[in-house]
Design brief:
The chain has 13 helices and no strands. By secondary structure, the chain is mainly alpha-helical. The relative contact order is 0.17. InterPro entries: MCP_dom_sf (IPR023395), MCP_transmembrane (IPR018108), Mito_GTP/GDP_Carrier (IPR053042).
């Protein structure tokens, strides 16, 4: 008989890290990712925002470097750092929220509903899907429909999931700096917030729709990879095993979320006074560019943004593991008691 592809460990068997370890690990991941990969992110955003087909090297050069396409190489490189301040606020907060928050929801689900994941998906697979579900902070549709999870649990997880949308204005301003700096017209942050108000949340629905499958695939892909590697305690993974798992999670996330990411980017890079709805963008893309337009920038994302997400996820999970000896009962740790 061939060995099982996944372990036989229960979804309730989860080793917990301290709150400090989660905070420092996720924060370090955001800072490291920003320092190394902001230029890569700028290139990917500019490629996704380009509406035509790139037919030549000079055209590609213009799309990527814009007004600096004929500048010396040094100025070209530094032209890839627009919106760095907005990016710092967004990226570090996002990584702390996502990478640091996922373990809290994972613990909640493990304590209260681990057995239900085991029954629904089997041991090993149930544990990996629980990690994926916690990564998205929403409940798997099948479990919701069949009533495996209680209504109050759905509410708690869904409310936590809204949190990342709060950071959306920073992402919008970062993308506009990267792809359409003319939209600012010399205005500073506070003036833009005053002028635009909730317009900075334009595209929030598409952002949530993109984050849902992307986050699920990120944490789920990583968890399944660790299962394939024979790990019963995911925190015991070596740096090499974490790296392999991060590649699996990041690749899955990018492929799954690619179409919605293109729509989100095009919504967010338009001038403030000339917005366009997501459905109109979808219609125009199908009409003028064809279905393949929804995967524009996917290859550069896998080659450039992929390593960025791999790097960030790898750093975050590895640092958390290094800091596990910190006390679990630290005040920053969420106290979760199982119901009797």
């Amino acid at each position: 008989m061939s060995p099982a592809l996944v372990s036989n460990t229960s979804a309730r068997d989860v080793k917990r890290e301290s709150g400090i370890a989660r905070l420092l690990g996720s924060g370090s991941a955001g800072i490291a990712e920003l320092a190394v990969f902001h230029p890569v992110d700028t290139i990917a955003k500019r490629l996704m925002s380009n509406h035509g087909k790139i037919a030549s090297g000079p055209q590609l050069n213009t799309v990527i470097f814009k007004d600096y396409s004929t500048a010396p190489i040094g100025r070209k490189f530094f032209s890839l750092f627009p919106g760095l301040g907005y990016a710092a606020g967004y990226k570090v907060s996002q990584r702390v929220y996502k990478f640091g928050g996922q373990p809290f929801v994972r613990d909640f689900l493990s304590i209260h509903h681990g057995e239900k994941f085991d029954r629904a998906f089997g041991k090993g697979s149930g544990k990996a899907i629980l990690h994926a579900t916690a990564g998205r902070f929403v409940v798997i549709l099948a479990l919701f429909v069949h009533g495996h999870l209680r209504a109050e649990t759905n509410t708690v997880i869904s409310l936590i999931g809204i949190g990342e949308i709060i950071l959306l204005p920073l992402d919008v301003l970062k993308i506009k700096r990267q792809t359409n700096p003319e939209a600012f017209r010399g205005r500073g942050l506070f003036k833009i917030v005053s002028d635009e108000g909730f317009g900075l949340y334009r595209g929030w629905g598409w952002t949530a729709a993109r984050n849902a499958p992307g986050s699920f695939a990120l944490f789920g892909g990583s968890a399944f990879a660790k299962e394939m590697l024979g790990l019963t305690d995911y925190n015991a993974a070596t740096w090499g095993q974490n790296f392999i798992a991060s590649i699996a999670g990041a690749s899955s996330s990018l492929v799954v979320s690619a179409p919605l990411d293109v729509i989100k980017t095009r919504i967010q890079n338009r001038n403030f006074e000339n917005p366009e709805s997501g459905f109109r963008i979808v219609s125009n893309m199908v009409k003028h560019e064809g279905p393949t337009a929804f995967f524009k920038g996917l290859t550069p994302k896998l080659l450039m943004t992929g390593p960025k997400l791999v790097f960030s996820f790898w750093i975050g999970t590895s640092i958390v593991y290094l800091l596990i000896p910190l006390r679990w009962d630290h005040p920053l740790t969420l106290s979760i008691q199982p119901k009797h």
